[in-house]
User: Fold these one by one.
Assistant:
Number 1:
Amino acid sequence: MPNLYTPHAMVIREIIPETPDTTTFRLQFKDAEVARAFTFRAGQFAEYSVFGEGECTFCIASSPTRMEYIECSFKQYGRVTTALRRLNVGDIIGLRGPYGNFFPLEEMEGKNIVFIAGGIGLAPVRCVIWNVLDLRDRFKEITIIYGARSVDDLVYKRELKEWADRPDVKTIVTVDPGGETADWKGEIGFVPTIVEKAGLRGTDTVAIVCGPPIMIKYTMPVLTAQGFADKDIITTLENRMKCGVGKCGRCNIGSVYVCKDGPVFTYAQLKELPDEF
Amino acid sequence: MTPPGKRYRIGPGQLAAFASALIADGYVVIAESPDGKGFTALKDGSAVAPDTERPPTALSMKDIVFPRAEPVFLYRKTLDDVQVIDPPSPPRGVVTFGVRPCDAASIQTLSKVFDWDYHDELFDTRAERTIVIGTLCRFTDDRCFCTSVGLSPSSTKGSDLFLLPLDDGGWILQIVTDKGSRFVARCLSAFSETDETGEDLVKRYPGPAVRFDPDRIRSWIPANFDHPLWPSLAETCLGCGQCAFACPVCHCFDLIDEADSFQHGRRMKIWDACQFPLFTKHASGHNPRDTQVKRYRQRVSHKFFIYPERFGEILCTGCGRCSRGCGVGIDIAEIVEQIEKTAVAESVARER
Ligand SMILES: Cc1cc2nc3c(=O)[nH]c(=O)nc-3n(C[C@H](O)[C@H](O)[C@H](O)COP(=O)(O)OP(=O)(O)OC[C@H]3O[C@@H](n4cnc5c(N)ncnc54)[C@H](O)[C@@H]3O)c2cc1C
Ligand code: SF4
Ligand code: SF4
Ligand code: FES
């Protein structure tokens, strides 16, 4: 009996080491039919699996404007992410999805966009960055602020350089104090501090903020002080998930199912939720 | 087809003969197990007659439509490929006898969540292939509260057919759904149609007195997430999850892999419970529900606020299983009563 928990087979085409504990996989559907039928929107996630180990939830880190492959970037934590790191190019993993809601790209058109990310939080943001850059003329000024604990912990290093080199994007990369190397040319400081220094203006601007809870917590007030309305600050939640389709009951925050109503939420929506994320 | 609503008289002994005939025809006939722990498939029809003077079984009938563990797929790995194999199709022709109203009602409730957007074909198929023969419940103890959540010992919600036990050992069989009607069409010739409604019988078993009004606590919960009442309600809870496993409508599950060898294995859908500490723990170590108080609040919220909000009904049939089985004596009805009392007192205080 085929059912909604059956994954598609994906072939690992490329493995890109990002940091000592984070890896990017470039994946292709084994079945060309399935590949043709697969569509997604920036911000959606999928359930990835290693057969015999289990499933885990990652966002789709590649852009829907580039459908030749699907990419995910993951940090090694437990059983499945450790098993994923042992795989080689050509190996098969499972994928179910795409699930969840997405960033309101249409509503963001004609506005300035500020991307703010910390650590592995750049993965979901990177999907939107490429989506926006591939449709560059629909948006006004684009600013990217990205921070990690140390230079070693920065993900997508080659793309950070590519964005920094583009005249139509303002890119600021920072590392936490003490995380810099001798030849580090970027900023030094925590993300909220750098956001404060960046002198953003909240008018006609949408901010997309993803990162560890502590970064989100201290960045939000800075954005508010810079004039961002709560509805123009958009983030994603990472409540633990299993089914991804509103059945297993794991991801509830009050009456919200993060896997169905999220993972993308505005700051205005977050303020309405009980403190269970 | 006999329209729903018609009633038939089943003589003493005829029910067992009916069940035996079904078994002979290849049906899987299920009834409460003699040890009272759950439901079991019968080898012959002699023990099919439900005895609803006994307490409800420790585990509900949800195991039949939502098994405690079932494969969602099997896999076979070779060095450079993986084959995903569909799990076996659920059994056809399952007939469950003697289901109490507080169990039968659960199927419709469960199907709301398994079907609200994405469809869980495994649940749907099992539910579709199961005939539920409900029965008037003649048991009440101080844990029962079906009448506080809109049910009663004679409610037919979720039943395809419904049995009323007559004093002479016979039964009135009521046809409730079209599905039930199609199913019994073949054997109705053995039974005679009757005008008896069994009303006096139903009156004899009114069930427990109404204990609370769930509507009163529904809006209190989200507005009082951090209320000091919560810690006092369930501070003794062990987080063992018995309550969720016994419950006919708790539906949380996990998806885990079972490998037999490097080559073979399966992904299993298994019961899980929001009462377990690891249930919501992130890989990073962060846990949004890091105390048992928060986890118990989730249990009550899900049943009396979240589910009603999302699916328009209460996630509780008042069967009392969770309370009967709880090792530390936590009684969900008492907890709801306390919340109701607090909610009413607070609203009176506000109006003054
Ligand atoms: C919408 C969303 C998007 C995400 N996107 C990304 C992303 O792009 N990149 C990324 O790196 N991460 C992402 N995550 C987080 C990611 O899902 C987890 O890091 C990942 O699932 C860890 O899996 P694991 O198997 O390695 O860890 P596990 O071994 O499953 O450990 C994870 C948790 O399970 C618990 N656990 C361990 N063993 C047991 C057990 N026997 N029983 C019960 N619980 C147990 C642990 O306590 C731990 O908290 C995302 C999460 C969500 C919800
Ligand atoms: S059965 Fe009782 S102790 Fe166990 S989790 Fe439920 S309420 Fe807590
Ligand atoms: S919560 Fe308790 S009383 Fe309500 S249906 Fe579940 S087991 Fe029965
Ligand atoms: S992840 Fe299962 S309900 Fe949201």
Number 2:
Amino acid sequence: MPEMIVCFKEVVDERELKVNPKTQELMTEGITRKISDFDLNAIEEAIRIKEMHGGRATGVIVGLPECKPSIKKALSMGLDRACLLSDPAFAGSDTLTVAAILAAAIRKLGPFDMILCGEASTDGFSAQLGPSLAERLDLPQITAASQVTIEGNQVVAERSLDDGIEVVEASFPVLLSVTKEINKPRLATLKQILAASKKEVLEWKAADLGLSTDAVGLQGSPIVLKRVAAFRMERKNIRLEGTLAEAAERAIRELLREGVL
Amino acid sequence: MKNEEYRNVWVFSEVKEVALELLSLGRQLADSLGVELGALALGNGAEAQASEYIAYGADRVYVGQHPALSRFSVEPYTDLIAGLAGQHRPEVLLIGATKRGKELAPRVATRLGTGCAADCISLTIEGESRALQVERVVYSGNALAMLTYRNRPQVATIPPGIFQRREREENRPGEIILAELPIREPRTRVREVREKEKGSVNIEAAEVVVSCGRGLNHPEDIQLIRELAELLGAEVGCSRPIAADLQWLSEDHWVGLSRHKVRPKLYIACGISGQIQHIAGIRDARIVLAINQDDAAPIFQSADYGIVGDLYQVIPALKEAYQRIVKRES
Ligand SMILES: Cc1cc2nc3c(=O)[nH]c(=O)nc-3n(C[C@H](O)[C@H](O)[C@H](O)COP(=O)(O)OP(=O)(O)OC[C@H]3O[C@@H](n4cnc5c(N)ncnc54)[C@H](O)[C@@H]3O)c2cc1C
Ligand SMILES: Cc1cc2nc3c(=O)[nH]c(=O)nc-3n(C[C@H](O)[C@H](O)[C@H](O)COP(=O)(O)OP(=O)(O)OC[C@H]3O[C@@H](n4cnc5c(N)ncnc54)[C@H](O)[C@@H]3O)c2cc1C
């Protein structure tokens, strides 16, 4: 019966992002927030493993105090409990530091068999956190897992790599990061949503984890994020009108003129 | 350790072609810092690779030939690379952003207690501080983040195909050093390796791409796309649903944030709505032509030319027009 930890992150819904027309900077305030896409797959996979093999799944999130609705959603899907790691001192943390916070919390939670992460987040999309956390906790890692099976006290997973599929195995404890293709995350039923309010949510700050505030957040992070600028799309946006034959002819002529055919 | 105690630029990729691209980028950075360029060659055939790396710009190559390095595995590779970087203290470490490189770089950085920036597409040195400044695509392809580093080494992963390799230089001087370091056996075991099902398409290198999305009704209608592609000397691309959900085409055709970034002269999107994750893959296309029956489809905002119409009628009309015009004019 595997003891599982699922790392999930709250992100802004990328479909609602707006650009400040003056500075070209991306405006991320006041936008709907959601659980990062691949993390729903990580949560779903943990629940499926629980349905087949029993065990327990604890969600862990480094986020703002306002991320409670996302925690409730994760619990409604079927996680057993959650652990919110939130402290003003955590603001501006890079991957190295977020991994340090998560590692401290996971150690405090006690022995585990598997850690599940998403392959990458929809905001940073760096795919770095899993490996960094595995290194901190001195665990073997299986990234980009597109299929996972438990055989006794080991995991067998298919990894989706650039040049093919690699089937690998590792004994517990192990860290996995999962792809979007691994499963289809479920929607919670009304009953599950109601039951989720009764599930345990632990809340820990830096001090609870024995972390000094200098070692986390902006001060503790080697990576400094200086600016986020929206991509400018320099496209011509020309509609080719007329009858079908006319539009097609104009298209071919324009493309020949552009020198791309 | 103070930042000033770190010197030199290092590059590593387990894929030789990518390593050559990184050598060209690394050479530029090393020259602007006035330092040496080092490269790492690990695994089978590392020594032969080492002399190639020198011909392509490295001043020094560290060769690792432990049996545990013969095929890529993240734990022994981390042991060796982090071990060497700990001893020799490079100020910059560039790693190819293949899937394997991306699982390696953060592990190496974490062991060294330093930061890593992923998928950097632009890298420059800030004069006074000698700090690396990088740009990377974030928010599902909507924005560009600019980052810099406080610690050393400054680790960055670089996507394949962004930088061009240099000319090969015969008889370039350089030093090859055998690296002997303690390496542990990996705790993951490979049971099986299966080549991805593919039709030998290298979509990232294609000059023209004709791409299809859920606007297609049946798998056999891919033929329509193929015919146009053939006529134009193009490769066939597709959106995620066609490769992932419907599996009408293999993954090597899949364009977008989560698979292939294409940079053709011409990208023709047929029945693709133009969600940002798809657009993230075609940002570097020179000209985009979109065909969609929905006049409000977002793809038109990301296109240079747009035809509003049913692709089942527009594609035959395009073929007809191409044959007529090109034939008449040649
Ligand atoms: C625009 C932008 C760019 C950034 N670029 C970098 C960079 O290049 N290098 C760097 O070191 N930092 C970077 N950061 C900081 C980085 O986003 C955070 O450290 C983040 O928590 C982890 O990185 P990620 O979002 O790229 O996640 P990824 O590494 O892509 O996430 C993989 C998985 O890790 C887990 N995970 C990630 N974050 C959390 C969390 N907060 N709580 C619980 N689980 C989590 C999830 O399972 C997720 O699916 C960037 C931040 C922003 C806003
Ligand atoms: C984390 C994440 C990563 C993703 N990565 C990728 C990725 O790498 N690549 C990718 O493509 N997507 C990706 N997606 C999915 C993406 O968000 C979209 O869902 C997907 O691109 C939509 O595919 P589509 O345009 O083919 O389908 P749809 O959005 O269903 O669009 C079909 C279009 O066809 C048009 N159409 C229908 N019939 C006709 C006709 N007869 N003639 C002309 N037009 C017609 C419709 O008007 C519509 O605009 C990702 C999503 C997430 C959340």
Number 3:
Amino acid sequence: MATVKLKNIKKTYPNGAVAVRGVDMAIEDGEFVVFVGPSGCGKSTMLRMVAGLENITDGEIEIDDRVINKVSPADRDVAMVFQNYALYPHMTVRGNMAYGLKNRGLPKAEINQKVTDAAKMLRIHDYLDRQPNQLSGGQRQRVAMGRAIVRDPKVFLFDEPLSNLDAKLRVQMRIEIKRLQRRMGVTSIYVTHDQTEAMTLADRLAVINDGRIEQMGAPIELYNNPATLFVASFIGAPQINLIPVQFDGKNLNSGDLQFSGFKDLPENTDLILGIRPDVLEPNNDGQLEMQVDLVEQHGAENLVYGALNGASTTDGYNTEICFKTDQNTQPAIDSVLKLHFDQNHAMVFNKETGERLI
Amino acid sequence: MSNINWRIILNHTILLIGVIFMSLPVWVAFSTSTHSAETILREGLQFWPGTNFIGTYREVLFEQGGVMKSVLGITMLKNSMILGIGFAIGKVIVSMLAAYAIVYFRFRLATPLFWIIFLTLLLPLEVRIIPSYEVVAGLGLLDTNFGLIVPLIASATGTFYFRQFFKSIPEELLEAARLDGATPWRFFVDILIPLSKTMIAAILIIMFVVGWNQYLWPLIMTTKEENYTLVIGIKQIYQILSEGGELPQYQKAFALTILATLPPVLVVLFFQNWFVKGLVESEK
Amino acid sequence: MKRVQFEHSTIPYLFIAPQIIIIAIFFLWPAAQAVHQSFLLEDAFGLSSQFVWFKNYFDTIGDASWRQAAWFTTVFSVLVTFLSLGIALLLAVKANEVIRGARTYRTTLMWAYAIAPPVAGLMGNLMFHPLIGDLYKFLNAIGWDFNHKLDSFDAGFVVVLIAVWKQVSVNFIFFLSGLQGISKAVNEAAMMDCKSPTRRFWTITFPLLAPTTFFLMVINITYAFFETFGIIDTTTGGAPGGSTNTLVYKVFQDGFRGADLGGSSAQSVVLMLIVLALTVIQFRFIERKVHY
Ligand SMILES: Nc1ncnc2c1ncn2[C@@H]1O[C@H](COP(=O)(O)OP(=O)(O)O)[C@@H](O)[C@H]1O
Ligand SMILES: [Mg+2]
């Protein structure tokens, strides 16, 4: 059980690449925190600094209020699950799980007990004497988890642990990881680029962009109340609809479209109107008009895609729009629909700075 | 589909010519070695084995004065074995340790030391043979196994094989091991050596062949007949045989060539897959 | 290098020490001595020596026999490299193509790797022996007035033939594994795009083999320069009249047989410089072209 604090953490690689540009965060005991962001944003670097696998260029990391910048990885009492599992290929499952305990000089009987317990918990008890290359992807994943669990660490670190699994297993393991963490109550940091994984796993979510935290909070808070354009577009699937607009003092304008009822916005500035797909609904009095070109049936719900008629273009292309509806609503291709949205659920961002204005 | 058949026939023809080109000389050497000196002088090289196999090889291997004044074939065989095995083992140990330091440690002199090691690849023993000889002679190491084997280890081919291999091992393995509390020595023993087993075997095989086949260095290093290896011995023998006034003993010369060829060839054939894998790993 | 490494102040030095000590004593020290001696002139009895600046170098380069050796080495290296690479590539392509007996072909074509160059030289020598050598008799029988003891072209022919024979198997192994390393999908895509096997080879396979070929060229030139020592020493011994001297063989002869230490050291140093220059050229100009 432990708290983890990052205090103005920075990382510059020896080759000059700046990966982390000053991150502050306090993780509470037993909390499950997920770092999410696009590839290359610095998530892994942050995690690896916590693990002690990378030097910290600047700032301090504390585990249980003890500064661990200079402590070796083995003495930090953290365990990590890697994307490619990093199992020792020449050791059996048992050997893999026991190796860290052996190095700590635990008595044999105790090691055996711990390995057996962890293996039972993960349902890999039958494979203890196999080598990693005799296991399926999902089983290897469990062994990697087992290796972390037996150590009884203060902190679990996960670096995209599910990325090498197929879609179905990924969902299954996601649920299992969450259950396990709940049960064991170990403070965990989990890195992923997959927003669904992030939303579903996190107690708290940190959206990372270019080495900085864009926003941190409960997943639903970030979904409903993104602080920036980046967070709004990164969180939520399907992605939020973004309509380029300008404010003329009374209305928001986009090409031939006008949206009234907005105020306190800067004039002559490029703005973005953001509307989540589930906020839109077909309605003959709607403010928007769309020409349908694709309907995706997901079973319980349908996603309808098309072009937004009359709007300004986005980067030279027709602005696209998507809304979510139930399985019975199935507009014909090329039909034209009016869509309505509740103004209270619309967001407005500064296009240049990404700042949320409304 | 008849043109496809022609293609197959052509392929096999080319390959068979290649096989004959590569194998015939050795076959002829073997066949000839089993005939008597008179037959060879009268009829020339032989394409089919004769009846003198046991006689010739026994004389060459075990009889004093069978080939040279004092040294027996079997002694030279033993010397070659010592050179091949000693060189292979020494090389694997030294180069594996060095490659481990280079790949897995950050230390101050890493770059200059790496370049020094790299330099040895470019400048083989042959270009600095005379000063090398003087150094070894100065240290009183002429005619010793140590003086014969250790200077050959100076060239860093093995280090580069291992470096290449270590670099191909996933990085996360070291990271996981560090989180598991492995010290540098434990990581080396518990993880790196077991993972390198195939590679070690392959390099042992390659280096055995390289060591066995050394020529120039043993030639200048050994002054006493009893220290001759087969590879350098046969040249002297060949000279003696063809200079002597009596009937030239060509069958013995051929028999010695076969003896010098057989052990490395058998090793390569027997461990073919490891050998090829290890050799090819050095590329890139 | 690895992203993550151990940081430790003494252990890496302990691990690397054996290699470095051996290199220092048996490589750096002799190499330094070679450079030092190359500036000295010894008297006839080796009792005293005198610092003569670059005299030994000028003597070396000005010496007609050295230039002859340099020329022979160049021609020899080019011939050996191209012939052995060409033959090996042909055999590797065929061995990769056939299905029946592929493994047997591989084995029988690669095992000559294990034969020492001087042993190959001796075998060749016996094949070309004026009394019993069938090749000698054969060449004379077809009207070639062949005598490698007297004729320098014939002597060159013998050493090139043996050197190529000895080197084909290494090249074959690398080419074959290079061919097997080309992904099946690429081959299948090529089959759909291009009907002619020959054209497919030159437009797809051969370019993909370029890194292997480059690597082998480096290996083969090194081989022709240095490792063929044993072949030359056991066949022609540089004869007739030094016409089959390679640079390495001449260093050896002048240093050991002729006891001209200063001159032989200067030759060594020049040879080192040539090798370094060749390596730099290969890496700078050729390698840049083979990346795909
Ligand atoms: N060892 C390294 N040396 C130099 N730059 C690196 C290194 N590792 C990562 N980077 C750079 O740092 C940035 C962040 O990398 P990383 O933390 O791995 O991103 P993420 O895990 O979010 O995809 C990237 O731009 C990457 O190129
Ligand atoms: Mg990452």
Number 4:
Amino acid sequence: MADLMLLGLFDNVETTADVIDDVRDLGVSDAQLEVLSNIPYPAKFFGLKTPGLMFWPFVFGGAILGALVAYFITFITPDLYPIHVGGQELTPVPPTAIMFFEFISLFSMLGAFIGFLLQNRFPILVREMYDELITDGYIGVQVQIEESVAEQVIGVFEKHHAHKINRELASEFKPQGIRHLFFWGAVAGGGLVVMLVPLLVSYEKIPLPWINKMNQTVVVGYQEGPRLAAPEEAVPFQGPRLIAGQPGTEPLEATESSIARGAALFQLHCAICHGETAQGDGPLSGYYTADHGFPVGVPALAGKGYPGSYIFEVVTNGRVGQTDDGTEFIKMPSLVENVSPGDTWDIINYINSLDAE
Amino acid sequence: MLESNAQRGPYWEQTTPEDERIAHQIEHGREEHLLLDPRPPAELNELALATMKKTGPAFWIAVLGLGSLSLIFALTWVTQIFNGVGITGLNRSVMWGPYIANLIYFIGIGHAGTFISAALRMMRMDFRRPIARAAETITLFGLAMAGLFPIIHVGRVWKLFYMIPIPNQRDLWPNFRSALFWDMSAITTYIIGSTLFMYIALIPDLAMARDHTDGWRRKLYGALSLGWRGTTGQWHKLEVVSNILSFVIIPVMFSVHTGVSWNLSMSVQPGWHSAIFGPFFVVGALYSGVAAVIIVMIFVRKVLKFGYFIRDEHFNAMGIFLFILMIAWVYFYFAEWITNWYGNLPPEVAIQEMLTGPLAPLFYLMLFANIIVPLVLVFKRVRTNLPAMLVICIFIQIGMYLERVIIVAGFLSRNELPFNWVDYVPQLPETIITIGTLATLGLLYLIWTRIVPIIPLWEVYEGQAMQSTRRVGRAVVSTRTDAH
């Protein structure tokens, strides 16, 4: 069993090659030899065989994985959620080609990189024979030999004027083994956990502290949900409007879904003045004072028991008032452009479901 | 003469020949060419590490200045997130403004980095050696900045995960038929590929830094250099993996800026809907990118005082490269313009009238900066004159930035429906964010130069060890050893 490690440092290729020849003559095999340098000298400079390597399984493996990812994006996801746009098929050829190109490139590069790490057993997690002068341009010849030939090898090193000779017991160096695999295993595990985060966010297992669903934002939320499911209670958009002097017609039944929609619409169209719970305390209510030329205040609506037709009329026509000197001003704007008759009845149902505070 | 002469003694110790004429020529060669002027690696390592460790007052002032600009940028972005993109000057017709122009610009300057490294590496161009990493760094941070802009632009940043092909509660998947998704996958591929490529070439230099520093730096470099010792096997694998990545990354590089251009040209917006946009953008990106690399080279030489590594020969080579790219860019721009002009389609005429009308100052400044100014590059005296190069390259940056703004915000303000014609005026938020990201790029770059050797030392050493001179008659010429 080989039990000594020697590292001789030389300052040029020529001498190093001579040293290697002489060391070989002492019966040291190539497997016991290692040349260390700070420049990519090819092994043939030292009369050594070019070290073997195997990148293609990594590159091709990566390419296949990339192709699978591209396949997933181009064939499987459109199938899971078909969106028909621009008169295109679900998997048209040109974009598919781009996807395959990009993902095959990406994963083959990743494959090559992983191949580089694994073949070198990086990261090295054990101590190895080394000398810091190597990065200063010295070429190191590392020999692992039995005690008995040590003196002879040192003799060779000295004959060739080694700049420095390091000598250590081979037992000092533990083999790297598969430590790097454990390392990358841990990294991969950590990476998977991190990648879980967007997944959990997207399923709202980790709720974000602000609105994250487009369908629930005020602007569009009311268009979704029950309305799609319950068309029978909908009032046609072009349905009977307000006929001058007559009450609004065709009320909607105050179902739960109607009240829910009304609540959302109320927040959108009315709450700014009448307040979130229709108590007359919305953000704009402070402006309805004599100072601002609106000496009216905003009334509370909750619990007043106004007939639906009355509310319908106010919303449709708005309210115009007069100041003391006779100029007209809009007390409440007409909202007929903003809310359809059906929406208005939803709002009315919501208002009537509220209690006074 | 053809007899091989084995040299004993380190490659950095060269004997001066007796003959005075020859000696003089060799001396001259050493002055001119980095690769003919080898010095002991120990000395050069020390030089590189000293710069990395040096953090004088000027450094801190620069960090403070750039840092505060970056902070203002961050605060502006937060303001925009809370208030919505409505606070910018974007409007219904000009829905893509400086944010997208910046995206194109930053990806553009990021282009040259990997091109110089990968393509010139494949072509065995030795002048790339000392500048490769400075260039790759622009790629890295340029792409990082570019990657910010779609995020800044979308407004609702918290919905970003919809872009990733992972399942979500609404069963929505990214639509790969959208040009935006092509672009996103190209940029992702490129940024990952460039980072790997850069990191691999960095490992031996990190090992060098590990060997010659102590304290936190030694620990950091020790971890990052992964236990590199420089065995012949490790070097061999490093070379092969770099070659593989180079081969893959060159087509990816083309796809990235083509992808960016397709974001525009896949729409039916007049002026955008052009088949030439892909190559035109690639050339434009290389053009502004090479100019950006030259600016960084001036910084590395003058501010970091790496005059030994980056010499006139490198500026000369890059200057020629820049000139060629300028010609290519002019050709594409002209081809694009003449097609539109001859076609005489009303919406495109409207765009031309706007460029030569209200936008004329910007348009002509762009042409002046991109075409007229760089013409002086024909002179070698200009190419090796750093102040002149700096001015030219800054002009090209301005010119190419304007080109992108004109194409994005300018073209969008005219379209097929005249009632949709809206002019765009940049507002404070996008102005701050644009300046701020430039500052952030500078800041990251500056910090980076203190953390990694900005010169790929081992590549320089390799070049120096493999380069020598040969006497032919009375002249001394340099010869390059092809070790493979």
